[in-house]
Amino acid sequence: MPLSKQTVSPTHTVDALVDVSRGAASGAVAGFVASAVMNGFQSLVTPLFQPSGAGGPPATEEAANRVSVVVSGARLGDGDRQAGGNAVHYLVGTLTGTLYGALAEARPGVTRWHGFALGLAAATLVDQIAVPLSGLARPPWRYTLRTHLYGYASHLVFGFVTEAVRKVLRERIGKAKRAHDAVTIDDISVPLLLGLANGQRTFTPPAAVTIAAAGSGLGLEGTPLALLSSKWTGVLLGAAAIGEYVADKQPGIPARISPPGLAGRALGGALSGAAAARPGKAWLAAGIGAAGALAGGYISYRVRMSLARALGRDKPVAFAEDALSMLGSAALAGYAALRQNQREPDKLAA
After folding, report:
1. Mean pLDDT comparison of 64-68, 146-150, 290-294, highest-scoring range
2. Is there a contact between 29 and 165 (Cβ–Cβ < 8 Å)?
């Protein structure tokens, strides 16, 4: 007797993807807030625990120094070490919250004990194992018992606050999802990320959105952006994107932060954002996409210059930037198409 195969509907797959993305966004905000609370907690209890650094700088400052050496070729100055350490602290906390929020959607068991399980795991895996193995701190046995208790207490606070904030945000996002006219996280994140990709390459996000519209459809029929549903528009924009990849490697090309370069990127970000938006949110998405493109232009320019100086060559950075913009744009355009395909059956059933 043949075994029956369990099928998963496209709607269920898209809903799961959306839930994970929303959980990750909630977790990122929660991780940032929890990092701030953790800092405050540590400042209060340091006299009680009297943690010992075993003669070395904090691991966060050492990590910031290593990043500075890679990017600029020089270590941080005395006045910048604390700021760099704080930046690493908040970055790690935000990334930890992002991963935790995403896992909470697929594996709700990770939220057990009101987030204290997260705190125990973070203290053990990061402080006790990963940080010493990376050379950012001494081995665990070089620290006093009070120092270990201080670390675990701090991370328990981090885990508790992360879960509390994540839970509140997740409930609010769920309510916004049920309100059709409310602005959801998708209405902001998708055009913003497309805009940031547009800051790297002018034609790549519009080309990706056009190809998605011509293939799976983005519901653009009967709108001012219906031209983007044509496969010929996709071919033209795709050719323009390829031409930009080639031109970007040539000497004498104007900087992307020049007025014409920024104007083109802002236009591309507005176009991509509006095309990927759900019905009724095109103008909002266009504005967010344009703003994201302007910010992405400046950010990517500074990052590329710094990495090129650190490596001594520009082309490896340029090719990596090509890949990042291409893959990111394709993923976002595909996500927008999946969401639109899900709305169509819902609209017919309503």
Report:
1. 290-294
2. yes
Write the pLDDT tens digit of every residue in 236-260. 888 998 988 888 888 777 888 888 8
Instruction: Go through the chain and tell me how many residues it has.
Output: 350
Q: Where are the beta strands (DSSP E) in the chain?
A: none
Residue with tokens 């010992």: 52
What does the DSSP assignment read for 38-82? HHHHHHHHHHHH----TTS--HHHHHHHHHHHHHHSSPPPTTTHH
Q: Write the pLDDT tens digit of every residue in 75-128.
A: 666 666 777 777 778 888 888 888 898 888 878 888 888 888 888 888 888 887
pTM, entire model: 0.49
- Amino acid in position 70: V
HSE-up of residue 239 (Cα within 13 Å, Cβ side):
5
Query: Do 270 and 33 contact (CB within 8 A), yes or no?
Result: no
User: CA 315, CA 323: separation in Å to the nearest integer?
Assistant: 12
The conformation of residue 115, written as its DSSP 8-state character, comes to: G
Residues near 297 by beta carbon (within 8 Å), at least 6 away in sequence: 199, 256, 257, 261, 262, 265
Closest of 164, 279, 147, 256 to residue 203, by C-alpha: 256
Alpha-carbon gap, residue 79 to 84, rounded angstroms = 10
Tokens found for residue 257 = 């932060």
- Angstrom CA distances, 5 to 8, 170, 318, stand at 10, 33, 45
